[in-house]
């Protein structure tokens, strides 16, 4: 079991966040250890301590992990070929490794086909947990709807009205429209669920932007909308000195982000500019100052060793 991997998955919201919580006495992630112990114990009990079948299930798990390593290496070659790297594995290394892993998987299947059923059962349970973590906002909204259906609550249908003689701008009018259906309205019955949804969606995500490029900014916004639970994206531009060219880039970024803020009204876009050197120390300062973990910070694909050092500090690479 890789505790570090589970901590990263928990902080990235791929698995429930309670995995990240630490024991105040020892400072360890006790929930990861306890859950692994519970899953391992349940596997032994279900299989009635049959060592052959238990070993087969662990073999499937190990081979599946090795296959994912190979496929991940290929994905990096296809999507992130410009990232500086110290070691580069040839294509045939990856292909040969994945082929041998597939042969091992097939050999294990021919040896005891019944073992695969237990492996798939635990895999499905794991995928359900991952899905619930990735779609927690959707599931909370479903609970809000079900609660409002079961426990009827008088709805307040009053919406903001404007004077007939006052022309309301389109973007203001869009924000005045109800953002949810009547069954999703906030009331005393669902206040806790609604508060949880708002807390998730208000957590900020940072994207470090270097140049005033509309395509890059739009890619970052689309990525956050498609893959993150938050509706709060902060663009941070770091420049070494307040020269004329640097200030011109800052002004361009301000205008572009203000424009995107009107184009995407459902996501809050903010812009910050910092004078300094773009390095891991700057990332750590941003994390401590704005209380944002580094794994919630995004960056464009690095093309030099200096930016690569920032990406290895926990910042995620999202665009090419």
Automatic annotation (TrEMBL):
Q: Which Gene3D superfamilies match?
A: Amino acid/polyamine transporter I
Q: What transmembrane ranges does the database entry give?
A: 31-49, 55-78, 90-110, 116-144
Q: Outline the segment boundaries, as ranges, of region: Disordered.
A: 155-185
Q: Which domain of life is it from?
A: Eukaryota
GO CC terms in record: membrane
Under the heading Pfam families, the entry gives:
AA_permease_2
Task: Quote the InterPro entries the UniProt record gives.
Answer: AA/rel_permease1
Q: Where in the cell is it found?
A: Membrane
Q: List UniProt keywords, sorted A-Z.
A: Membrane, Transmembrane, Transmembrane helix
Q: Name one GO molecular function term.
A: transmembrane transporter activity
How this chain sits in the membrane, per its record, is: Multi-pass membrane protein
Name the record gives this protein? Uncharacterized protein
Higher taxonomy = Eukaryota, Sar, Stramenopiles, Oomycota, Saprolegniomycetes
